[in-house]
Specification:
Layout lengths: L2 E5 L5 E4 L6 E8 L10 E8 L3 E2 L6 E9 L3 E5 L5 E3 L6 E4 L4 E5 L4 E9 L3 E17 L4 E15 L2 E5 L4 E5 L5 E17 L1
Length: 194
């Protein structure tokens, strides 16, 4: 039976980065309240205010999107730096290799999706909603994060209203269709079991 959970931005858990270099805002994690070394999947936001190294998460894949700010360049596992901005596609990379960030011009806020490589994989799509659009739920774990603006979601006779920073989590709803009404930038996150 599909379950829907409304995650309001006012209820997100704030906690220090694994490396102590800043603060992260945890949107959702499984298992619930899992420690940073024990989660299967985790969605969070963080403000990056200084250049520096990312935390290492053994066995984890991550995807990063810039929500606010002028962006940053990431040097991943010794490769040439990749520029990441609000206009860039979400950037997937391994979370257990050395990554160093250099800010373009001041602090940024990012959206971070992480999954345990041995059991899960994930995909993220940024969608600019202006009016009505349709999204197909293509995974057993599916989230829609409303970054700015506001949207109303309808599926299977159910309804959810999201405003800035809110998230809808659907579990066990693969194959369902969600109608999205409103004006906002949204991130659609699909988490698949291997």
């Amino acid at each position: 039976m599909p379950t829907a959970t409304m995650l309001k931005s006012s209820t997100y858990r704030r906690m220090p980065w694994k490396n102590g270099g800043g603060e992260t805002v945890e949107i959702a994690v499984r298992p619930d309240a899992a420690a940073l070394s024990e989660f299967d999947w985790r969605i969070s936001m963080a403000t990056v205010a200084t250049d520096g190294a990312f935390s290492i998460f053994p066995g984890i894949d991550r995807t990063l999107s810039i929500l606010d700010g002028q962006g940053m360049s990431l040097a991943i596992d010794g490769a040439a730096s990749a520029a990441l901005t609000r206009e860039s596609a979400p950037l997937p990379f391994a979370a257990d290799v050395p990554v160093t960030a250099v800010l373009a011009d001041g602090p940024i806020t990012d959206l971070n999706v992480m999954t345990r490589r041995s059991v899960l994989r994930h995909h993220i799509e940024r969608s600019h909603v202006d009016g009505q659009s349709i999204a197909g739920v293509d995974a057993q774990i599916w989230l829609l994060f409303c970054h700015d603006g506001a949207v109303v979601l309808n599926w299977d006779g159910e309804k959810a209203e999201l405003s800035y920073g809110d998230t809808l989590l659907l579990e066990g709803a693969a194959g369902k269709v969600v109608t999205i009404d409103g004006k906002a930038t949204c991130y659609l996150i699909a988490i698949h079991a291997l």
